[in-house]
Amino acid sequence: MPLTIAYRPVILPPHAVPAPVLVLGTDEARPRDFTARIRQKDMVSVRRSLRRPSQLRQRVAGVVAVGLGAALLGSMGWGDPQGMRVAQAQAGLQPFERPGESFPGSAFYYLSPEDSGLLSPDSAAAAWAARRDDADASSPAGPAARPLIARGSGEDRWRALQCLTAAVYYEAASEPDAGQRAVAQVVLNRVAHPAYPHTVCGVVYQGSERPGCQFSFACDGSLARRPVAQFWDRARRVAADALAGVVYAPVGLATHYHTWAVHPGWADKLSFVGAIGAHRFYRWGGSAGRPAAFSAVYLGGEPMAAPHPRSWTPAPADIADPVALERAFEEGRLAALRTQGASATAATGAAFGQQPLPHATAPAYAPEVEQRGGDAVFRGDALPQGGAVNPAYENAGKWIARPGA
Hints:
The chain is mainly alpha-helical. It has helices spanning about 35-50, 55-75, 80-90, 120-130, 135, 155-170, 175-190, 200-205, 230-245, 315-320, 320-350, 365-370, and strands at about 120, 245-250, 255-260, 270-275, 280-285.
């Protein structure tokens, strides 16, 4: 049996951690001798420059050149906010983006805290209960996922947290919070889908006994890298929130993603949800991607928080690509309906596909309609020869004189 990975995070030395930037905008933040030291440094520089007139002339010429360059750029519209906006528009940037610091998916770096996309467990549960499947099917991402709360024993909860933290860290350690929460949500969406294992560790390490597993870090040697403590703790906080029922709504019911560096063959056959950070997210477009399919209930029972050994016998779902999984899900759904129809046929004699729908019964009418007769008011018995049609209209729709007769 595989052993649980005992992570020993790397502790960055103090000099490797960037020091916080001190904004010297107030008297409280400025050291008392700051101005004096700057003035003293400038005076020393001036004295040295006076001893070497050539260097002084070079510095003066440089200052004049910079001033002329700024004036020229200002005349071109680059010296004011309006000119900057024009330059951004010409470069195809959004108003909140900065030239040279934008790339596909970078908009999520500029999101304000109130636009985090997070739903509390209660809000997510209420939204899931009030969803409309017909409306959700038309949106790219579908509804926000149903909240998943870690259950089971203490060992189950620890293993789930360890596995989800590893997935977030090795898949999106350098991404913003949005990118990390999106990866965690995809893992939990798979836990809730019958096409995947119903445990967090089972989903994360699915197919890890062979190359080409579901999450590449589990089988490409990435686990040999010792995680950095600061980034591991950040990934753990994201995983803990997800396992406490917090839902990241922007990815909806996405179950797949890939980086911008690749374009797998299945990408064009799934519904594109959106780009978040360094990944592009997708969900199934057919019945496998609809809310009714995410019906699995998480009950714990987590396996070892480690990759499978090479001797592991994979299941067919561990090897299948997303398109094959969607096809298998649809075939299984139809087979279940046929089985259900066959059992109903034995009881009622009806053929498969001819069972009355649950809503195919007499509807409930308002009290005033019930007083007039309820469903009988709308029945089609007022037809010719039915005794309820005025005889003067019984021949309506018939030929008065057939042409050529």
